[in-house]
């Protein structure tokens, strides 16, 4: 499945406009992520800084945070998606970057990896937790989505394989703890949010 994992970046680059159309179309029917965004925002300082890892074209997640008064830095591996972000929200910071190699001089009050982190292979996911910690301010909030068990899965997007992987929940908890995060809330297959599995965490050390 490593070939499918290696195809994630070119897949989203090739179909950037289609992805944006789908995300905005779904959000127009009602923002299913609204409750989780409210929980995330509720833990952030007023007008704090947020790093959106795998921001796509900036809607609906980054856009909601920007409209809520937060300073947004978005990163995505697709240059075409970042171009859309820069046109849509020119006052924010948008960077073309691979999250596995992300190094930034600043730290952030909030870190979001919504439906992006789970496209990494499992060893790459493991290596991301110290990176999250390095990018986090004291008491920073981290929210990400994952699978429900250790393994790999292949979906499809525009007729091409779409790679996902996950660690076991107990390993995520261990990695979070080792990197100084505590789990504030964890919901598996949330029926109110498209059956996504969501982690809301806070930096404690």
From TrEMBL:
Keywords: Methyltransferase, Transferase. CDD domains: AdoMet_MTases (cd02440). GO terms for molecular function: methyltransferase activity. The keyword Ribonucleoprotein does not apply. GO terms for biological process: methylation. Residues 50-135 form the Methyltransferase domain. The keyword Transmembrane helix does not apply. Pfam families: Methyltransf_25. PANTHER family: TRANS-ACONITATE 2-METHYLTRANSFERASE-RELATED (PTHR43861). This is Trans-aconitate methyltransferase. It comes from Pseudochrobactrum saccharolyticum.
